Amino acid sequence: MSWRFLHPTDFSEASELAFAHALKLTLLTGGELRILHVAPDAGDAGWKHFPGVREALERWGVLPPGSPPSAVAGLGVDIEKVQTAGADPVAHTAEFLRHHPADVIVMATHPRDGFAAWRQPSVAAAISQHAGEIALFVPEGSRSFVSPDTGALNLRRILIPVDHEPAPQPAVDAAMAIAGIVGDDPVAFRLLHAGEGPFPVVTTPERADWSWERQTELGDAVERLAAAVGTWHPQLVVMTTAGRHGFMDAVRGSTTERVLREARCPLLAVSVSARALPRLRGAGR
Question: Of the residues 52, 90, 93, 99, which has the fewest C-beta atoms closer than 10 A?
Fold first, then answer.
């Protein structure tokens, strides 16, 4: 079962890095990718600024130089570029998701303004209803697990902060789904619990190429996470988010934003009730 991705782009360098992750994951899952740009003055001139799908695939060695547009579909993926005029990118993204549901939204974040453009609560219900409630945030200048130059993967360490609330199992399941599609390289998972008391209950599989470590630290959860990132250097952080609005709670949540600012690596935020998880599990190994 293929994954469905949405990549909102503002044509920035940060969006180029997020695009590379969205494109690579689409290839790995034989999935669907919609690249969406919303701008007040969207017109024919805007199409030239979209990230080049064929150019990236040729650069990565997936397609030979000078391939025709039809060659992309020949890879077993469905990729579409969509441009729409509007002053509110969130509202228009919500409307787009109403007709084109996505399992994972892949979007860039910027150090200075972070989630500023995505904080409007008026469309939170619309987005969470039609999105898969899973979002991959790729901070500008972060240590990414997909090379935009070569398409090479480097996903060997995944850090999962866990607590009793929200339930950690959705994050663990999503981390396993991501690891399951990236290849045969060994993957080390670290479950990090910041706090006293018993370790949160999670179920992890026994696999020869996967290792699991459980670590407990005392102190502020985000500070402990930042320290773990600084010493262990994971390529991805996966965390569960709480709340009725899933994806938009992750966008507006202070904890998620603090983690992104501190971690400086891609963050996969998973709602406790993410409806896309069964689809993601089905596409893994």
Answer: 99
